[in-house]
Amino acid sequence: MSSEERRARVRALAKINLDLRVLGRRADGYHELRTVFQTISLADALELCYRPGRRCRIEVESEPVIADNLVERAAVLLARRGGLRGEVRIRLEKRIPIAAGLGGGSSDAAAVLLALPVLAGLRLELAQLIEMAAELGSDVPFFLCGGRALGLGRGQEVYPLPDGPAAWALIVVPAEGISTAAAYAELAPALTRVSPGRSIIEFQSWLWSQTLGPAQISETPSNDFEAVVFRRRPALLRLKRQLLAAGAQSALLSGSGSALAGIFPTRRRAEQAGRGIGARVEVAALVSRARYQGWWRRWLRPHLSAGRRWPPQSRYSR
Questions:
Q1: 163 among known catalytic residues
Q2: 44 included as an active-site residue
Q3: What is the pLDDT of residues 107-118, one digit of tens each?
């Protein structure tokens, strides 16, 4: 194996939830979810440097500094479970808002799981990466897939879905974030008002409408967190109504918030809707699975073996 330093600069894309139902608490303490994830072009940037060696040394730098950084945890997990050795340096530049329900930390972790094995010449199958991703966090496995996907269990059980038509998201990010743990705690009493069976049927009907088309089934997306989050933060409800009044095809809290995502057919419509909103806004494209995986192959191209297997395979593997 060459001792030459290997570098890659990659992007960790954010996600929105196109629908999210919380069925109740499970025996393991987590909540049972039904959700549809969608990658968007808003992204953090990671620069990874790897030099082969017998001992493992990991350095992570981030701007801003993040406590309990999932980037470092992902690299440590690759050392512990994936056989990673050598010198690793990672620099993270945050662009995805923190505590906004956009999956930035989870996407950063998945980016390490996809990129570092390629640089280090590790032979890891997708099943191994999914297992490590689920250990790092509920949303992390989705970012190994990208595009549009169904999330079950606590969100870590991911099944790819057909991508929808090209569209743009206007992301509205209030200044104050929302704690996921606090949102779940407030949601718990409300879960007893709707039976899990009814929630599953409503979710299933909405999901079918995405394939059969609105002319066949008329369903609107839903996020169970909105009932409790909007009660505590009425300004978010007003922002949602503002997005719908501006022509959004749908407007929904992403995850447990605090970001809202309005879906528009064109970038111009999304940009027009963002004018005059009294909060940070980002305009991002919905990113298909083919585009997502194509970007990853381009970012890692100098280090890839021939072929188009997923996850990307290293040319340094033996």
A1: no
A2: no
A3: 999 999 999 999
